[in-house]
Specification:
148 residues; alpha/beta; Ribose 5-phosphate Isomerase B, Chain: A; 6 helices
Length: 148
């Protein structure tokens, strides 16, 4: 467990509820402090931009937090989240991708595709995302500053 992370905010649209609940349970069992931002009803459609905005608002000013967003494809959440200057979101399908995106691009939000990813692989992606460091060297910091 990465003790430098203050909390993990998780949010999903209606298509991602089951995966979100699984990840909340697994991350809590691993000792992380999670905050479930909804939605909780898989039968009532919600708009992914509203869910991404809720997570972005929750993370504002808390540089030690991380976020996980889930929708059917993952792409909608990634796009919506990256509208916010303090968010660097990436849609990942493999743990190695989550690890590399943290290391190279200092992502602070993981986007997952509930319709396309096995729940155990999703958890492995979340673990890699949470446990991987950012390679905090000057050239990478400069790149991050250009988008933040």
């Amino acid at each position: 467990m990465n003790k430098q992370i203050s909390k993990i905010f998780l949010a999903a649209d209606h298509r991602g509820v089951a995966l979100k609940l699984y990840l909340v349970e697994m991350l809590n069992a691993a000792g992380y402090q999670t905050v479930d931002l909804g939605t909780s009803d898989p039968r009532t459609p919600v708009d992914f931009p509203d869910i991404a905005a809720k997570l972005a608002d929750a993370m504002l000013g808390d540089n030690a937090s991380r976020g996980i967003l889930i929708c059917g494809t993952g792409a909608g959440m990634e796009i919506a989240a990256n509208r916010y200057r303090h968010i660097r979101a990436s849609r990942c399908e493999r743990p190695s991708q989550a690890r590399d995106d943290r290391f190279h691009d200092d992502i602070n939000v993981l986007a997952l595709a509930a319709d396309d990813i096995d729940i155990e692989v999703a958890y492995l992606c979340a673990q890699a995302f949470l446990e991987s460091p950012f390679d905090d060297i000057e050239r990478r910091r400069k790149r991050i500053e250009k988008i933040s």
